[in-house]
Amino acid sequence: MSKKLNIHCLQHVSFEGLGAMEEWISKNNHNLTYTRFYNNETLPDLSDIDVLIVMGGPMSVHDEADFHWLKKEKEFIKKAIDLQKKVIGICLGAQLISNVLGGEISNNKDKEIGWFPIQATDTKLPILKNVPEVLNVFHWHGETFTIPENAVRLFQSEGCENQGFLLNNQVLGLQFHFEVTEETMRNMVLEGKDELIENKYIQSAETILNQTEFIKQNNQIMAQFLDFMTGD
Question: For each successive 10 residues of the chain (232 residues), what is the average pLDDT?
């Protein structure tokens, strides 16, 4: 039986939650705690945490003047990595991880919002076992990260070269949303509808919400990644 883990989630906005990851945490009987920055909650003691999950949000890693907690959050993430905690970042979370590891965060050539294909870079990597070489995933980002030093790129797409990375089987960053459920997808569309100006890599709300057939596969891969990251 696997060890019961203390998992802590850094959540930036109410409408970008853990999605399918919450179901995996519950199924495996792990403990789950939160710092909800939008409620001005404070960061916990890292000694009590085994796994840190950093979620997405519409702000940028560069917005420290507008979001007073960003500087402390970055320090917390860096310390978690230095203490050899398992750290997983989704979208903004992946950009924050890249940023604290010396990477650059900049505007992507195009915004990507909706269901678009990504390509796995090397399906022989253990974390990508049983992951299709090409699959459709849910995107919502205007910025991109550089791959941190010594990390391996996991995915790329036509619209964005760096879609995911893994560092030492300890730190995982994903630019897209394997965790999205029908509910979290609806919430994101509702909150971000002003951004849905159709473009090469931006779909309409209707197009996004009608593509539920990819969710199950995405959630299964997210669970597989969580198994990999937390395995002994």
Answer: 87 97 97 97 96 97 97 98 98 98 96 98 94 97 98 97 98 98 97 94 97 98 98 72
Residue with tokens 């050539």: 109
Task: State how far the alpha carbon of 197 is from the alpha carbons of 112, 180, 190, 205, in Å.
Answer: 11, 21, 14, 10
Only one residue has tokens 């269901």, namely: 115
The answer to whether 31 and 68 are in contact (CB under 8 A) is no
Q: How would you label 143-152 residue by residue, b for 16+ Cβ within 10 Å and e otherwise?
A: bbbbbbeebb
Identify the CA nearest to 127 among candidates 67, 92, 86, 95: 86
